[in-house]
Automatic annotation (TrEMBL):
Name of the featured protein: N-acetyltransferase domain-containing protein
Lineage: Bacteria, Bacillati, Bacillota, Clostridia, Lachnospirales
Top-rank lineage group of the source organism: Bacteria
MF terms in GO: acyltransferase activity, transferring groups other than amino-acyl groups
InterPro entries found in the cross-reference section: Acyl_CoA_acyltransferase, GNAT_dom, N-acetyltransferase
Annotated source species: Vallitalea longa
Alphabetized SUPFAM superfamilies for the sequence: Acyl-CoA N-acyltransferases (Nat)
Domain N-acetyltransferase: 17-160
Pfam family, one: Acetyltransf_3
């Protein structure tokens, strides 16, 4: 089955929509969010537009509808030569349809072409089976399991 997925440029409007969408209780339980306000989200977005930014993100469209975000943060081209990956499909009606897999495949290629890095890491909650399966299907390997803030989490990594 062909899935119509594309990545687009993030805008301030996307940040506002994303912020509203992730306030959903079920979504909050599935992803480790650290940003506590729309204002903080907008500041981080503006910072990501700077020339020497250590983060880079795209928006995910499915059938021309904005359904989520994918981004790298802690981009380090000098020492560790790695970045961290996050993906959130906030549109729950499309969960499990392969949109995340296709978005990750496109985004990883873009990141490895754009930045001089050798690996990409990702964290997810140990109970988030969909996220773990998505990352493993995308070539990530489990590196370690740990507990943070009382929640068991998994760190996975993909090497170039």
């Amino acid at each position: 089955m062909l899935i119509n997925v594309s990545l687009g440029k993030r805008t301030r409007e996307h940040v506002k929509i994303y912020w509203d969408k992730i306030q959903d209780e079920e979504t909050q339980k599935m992803f480790p969010f650290s940003i506590e306000s729309l204002e903080e989200s907008l500041k981080l977005f503006e910072k990501s537009l700077e020339d020497e930014a250590s983060s880079y993100g795209r928006v995910i469209y499915h059938d021309d509808k904005y359904v989520g975000d994918i981004w790298c943060y802690c981009i380090d081209e000098t020492d560790e030569k790695m970045a961290m990956l996050s993906i959130v499909i906030f549109e729950k009606t499309v969960w499990g349809q392969g949109i995340g897999s296709q978005a990750i495949k496109m985004f990883i290629k873009e990141i490895f072409d754009k930045y001089s890095i050798d690996k990409i890491g990702a964290f997810t909650y140990a109970y988030n089976d969909r996220s773990i399966n998505l990352l493993e299907k995308s070539g990530f390997n489990r590196i370690e399991t740990f507990v943070e803030d009382g929640i068991e989490s998994i760190y996975l990594e993909l090497s170039r």
